[in-house]
Specification:
- The protein is about 35% helix and about 15% strand.
- The chain contains 17 helices and 19 strands.
- The protein has helices at about 10-20, 65-70, 105-115, 115-140, 145-155, 165-170, 175-180, 185-195, 210, 230-240, 285-295, 300-305, 335, 345-360, 410-425, 440-445, 500-525, and strands spanning about 1-5, 25-30, 40-45, 50, 80, 85, 100, 225, 245-250, 255-260, 260-265, 270-275, 280, 315-320, 340-345, 365-370, 385-395, 430-435, 485.
- A hairpin with a 4-residue loop joins strand 11 (about 260-265) and strand 12 (about 270-275).
- The chain starts with a strand and ends with a helix.
């Protein structure tokens, strides 16, 4: 019998690949004509291949998934983002920028030149302490969640004052962690902005590991898939099909109903499918809606929906075709253009933006992360042009004054470009074309409810075996045998890791093999 997978996000495809590799018949059903969800790349301007969602792949290269699925054999190739981070100097100062390279010694030299020798030594200590810790967290991300896996992530490492001190360090805010190591505010702002890419501000409890992930970049920096973020999806689809899997696009699943020993799945085109096993890779709220259409208990679904916190939204993006790369004072393009460009020099800017989002307001100043990956991969832009993605936090999906995002999109796009222009004077004049993706656009095009690219908030109470709820955290749905969950709504959350897909496949295969082994033992016992 075929296993049906709802949605073609990268986690869903990863799950499909592991199941097909194990010999299971698999079909992926995708509502969109473009596969991959937020890990996809499409033409937006003449000669440009532009990402629809993610751009830098930070986590998946630490998981082992690329090697286990042999995705290089299916055309996937990564280029290291090195330098992986760049923090321009605050305006109206003569200090140099901070360049974060994979090489720790060269990074510490850059920190010393910009921030002083004390912070350089502190940065070396930060990487020495938090590098092993973040590697351990990544291992905890690699399988289904559970208390034991959480404990293995947080404890068992060297902590001078014992396990209690270590647990306190993990549970503190990212800001508190940074304040305990560093003096220089622009350095702390850059690392806080890196940590905040998961969504929560570094002022929230439990965000210290998110800031600590910067240490892992000296082991393996973010990677840029050649051809765009969607190159990962392309390789996964090729891998799945090579093992007999089927991928169907442009046909949305409209309902999932329990029937006998399996699931009746209906699609917009009128297909009426039956499968003993279904894996849903959509947003958790979308999955609950599909169950509602299939007659699942309304009271249970209402309770789950009330308790899952999507939040106000995270951000928006401006995709720009340009005639040149940004020119930051005191830096060559080789230093600034290959990685993540952190355009925040004071954490007050981050805090004000987040506070505004909670109030349903636009940020006083957009907090911008610039990425110019055409400097690494010229295949995504025509000769003589470049391409930038300008990600900005925090922008609420629903505005307090009741206005629609269409009334603000272009003006907010102007403000985001102006932030980069202030750090790299003359940038605005190089923009040839642009595409603005507001939170409403992210929701409509990619199914990211509330404009939240992480699906649901990545706060401590919605991580590990609490994500998205304790009873839904094990990739299973109570009262729905044979239905499994994957995607950013589940452990370990958003970002491009594929770990949820692998874990969901492991859980499903374990359940599938148990009755098969039981049936086999019965048959053998009768002989």
């Amino acid at each position: 019998m075929t296993i049906l997978i709802v949605g073609s996000g990268h986690n869903a495809l990863v799950a499909g690949c592991y199941l097909a590799r194990a010999g299971e018949a698999v079909e992926v059903l995708e509502r969109d004509e473009v596969l991959g969800g937020a890990v996809s790349t499409v033409p937006r301007f003449p000669g440009h291949l532009v990402d629809r969602g993610s751009s830098a792949h930070i986590m998946i290269r630490h998981t082992g998934i690329l090697e286990e699925l042999e995705l290089e054999r299916f055309g996937l190739r990564y280029i290291d983002c090195d330098p992986w981070g760049f923090a321009p100097a605050p305006q109206h100062t003569d200090r140099p920028p901070i360049v974060f390279r994979r090489d720790l010694d060269r990074t510490c030299a850059a920190v010393a030149a910009a921030c002083g020798e004390r912070d350089a030594q502190a940065y070396r200590r930060f990487v020495r302490v938090w590098g092993p810790r973040t590697r351990r967290v990544m291992r905890a991300f690699g399988g289904p969640p559970g208390p034991g896996r959480l404990l293995r992530a947080f404890w068992g490492l060297d902590a001078g004052a014992g396990g209690g001190a270590l647990s306190r360090e993990f549970l503190q805010s990212g800001d508190a962690l940074l304040d305990s190591y560093f003096d220089d505010e622009p350095l702390k702002a850059a690392l806080a902005w890196f940590g905040a890419q998961s969504g929560p501000p570094m002022s929230e409890p439990g965000t210290a590991p998110m800031a600590g992930f910067a240490a892992l970049m000296h082991t393996l920096p973010p990677g840029r898939a050649v051809g765009g973020s969607g190159a990962l999806t392309t390789a996964l689809v090729r891998r799945l099909r090579s093992d007999g899997g089927v991928v169907t696009s442009g046909d949305a699943v409209t309902g999932i109903r329990r029937e006998g020993a399996g699931w009746r799945v209906r699609t917009a085109s009128g297909r009426n499918l039956f499968a003993p096993t279904v894996i849903s890779g959509t947003h958790i709220l979308t999955t609950l809606d599909l169950l509602r259409h299939g007659g699942f208990d309304d009271g249970v679904l209402d309770d789950w929906r009330r308790r899952i916190r999507v939040g106000p939204g995270i951000g928006m993006v401006v995709r720009a075709a340009t005639s040149a790369l940004p020119r930051y004072p005191g830096a060559a393009a080789a230093e600034s253009a290959r990685g993540l460009q952190f355009l925040a020099t004071d954490r007050r800017q981050l805090r004000l933006a987040h506070g505004a989002a909670l109030a349903g307001e636009l940020p006083p100043r957009p907090v911008v992360l610039a990425m110019s990956f055409s400097a690494l991969d010229p295949t995504i832009a025509p000769p003589g042009q470049h391409q930038l993605s300008l990600w900005a936090q925090w922008h609420p999906r629903h505005l307090a004054d009741g206005s629609e995002w269409a009334a603000h999109a272009e003006r907010e796009g102007d403000r985001i470009i102006a932030e980069l222009d202030a750090a790299a004077p003359g940038f605005a004049d190089t923009v040839l074309d642009r595409f603005v993706q507001t939170p409403a656009d992210l929701e409509r095009e990619l199914g990211l409810i509330g404009g939240n690219v992480m699906h649901v908030e990545m706060s401590l109470d919605q991580m590990f075996f609490w994500r998205p709820l304790p009873e839904l955290s094990g990739h299973r749905v109570p009262g729905a045998p044979g239905l499994y969950l994957t995607g950013a709504s589940t452990h370990p959350g958003g970002g491009v890791s594929g770990a949820s897909g692998r874990s969901a496949a492991q859980v499903a295969l374990r359940d599938l093999r148990r009755p098969r082994l039981t049936a086999l033992s019965h048959r053998l016992g009768k002989r």
